[in-house]
Design brief:
263 residues, alpha/beta
Length: 263
């Protein structure tokens, strides 16, 4: 009798093990099928979508580079991008006014800035010295133009050989104070006058102007890097009587366009 019970318990145990194995195997298969179905339902973002997003963001950022573009973005819809050029006889080409560098620059920028509109004003002091200009109405004329961007040529070339560079820079500081006080929302860029062949002391004066701008954190458009050097005879192809000729104005306009747009 005991033998029969012992054999029966062994058979029952084996049966339980076999049934349990099949049950566990079936459970595993069910879990696997559910996991596969879930994986098919959830679609992770692809690498292509990520690249496209990054590229789009990069394109937006790139479209905002350049001083002119930054100023344009900050304007209200009804405002125009108003640019005033304040300088000496070097900003005008008397033989053909439309070939002066400010007007050439206006044409180039107008192709880039379609909305809002762009306007250009020039305030030409001709050959007056810095001291003469402080005692004139020219600075008030600039203020009345209320520009978004002021391209200001310090009158170092007019002062050359007439006024010490220290006095020229003192006069410039006075004018800059007047302009920044009256035009707090205007971006001002200092633009040196044209280079001269065999510049001599004039080269030292321009270096002093550049240092002056750097010390005071004034924006400075060093367009001289686009011209032949002062000791290069090729510079004479761009200068006549100490001022830019037609080719010189074209070169200057291109240099300013590059400075303002980073293009």
């Amino acid at each position: 009798m005991k033998s029969l019970l012992y054999i029966g318990s062994i058979i029952l145990s084996i049966t339980i093990i076999i049934v349990g194995h099949f049950y566990y195997q079936q459970k595993l298969e069910t879990i696997a099928e559910e996991s596969q179905a879930l994986a098919l339902t959830i679609t992770p973002p692809t690498t292509t979508e990520t690249v496209e997003t990054e590229t789009a963001a990069g394109e937006v950022e790139a479209s905002l580079t350049g001083l002119v573009k930054e100023l344009t973005v900050s304007l209200e819809d009804e405002d125009s991008l108003a640019i005033t050029v304040f300088g000496s006889a070097s900003i005008a080409y008397d033989e053909e006014a439309s070939s002066s560098w400010p007007l050439l620059l206006e044409d180039q920028l107008s192709e880039l800035v379609e909305n809002p509109s762009l306007s250009m004003v020039t305030v030409n002091v001709d050959r007056l010295t810095s001291i003469d200009i402080i005692n004139s109405e020219y600075v008030n004329e600039v203020i009345e133009s209320n520009p978004t961007l002021l391209l200001f040529e310090p009158f170092i070339l007019n002062d050359n050989g007439v006024i010490r560079i220290e006095d020229s820079l003192d006069a410039l500081e006075i004018m800059m104070q007047q302009l920044t006080d009256a035009l707090p929302n205007t971006t001002i860029v200092l633009v040196p006058a044209n280079p001269l062949p065999n510049a001599g002391f004039y080269l030292t004066q321009i270096e002093a102007l550049e240092n002056f701008a750097a010390e005071r954190d004034y924006l400075y458009a060093n367009h001289w890097t686009s011209w032949p050097s002062t000791d290069n005879e090729a510079l004479r192809n761009y200068i006549a009587n100490g001022r830019p000729n037609k080719d010189g104005h074209a070169l200057w306009a291109d240099a300013m366009f590059e400075f303002l747009t980073n293009e």
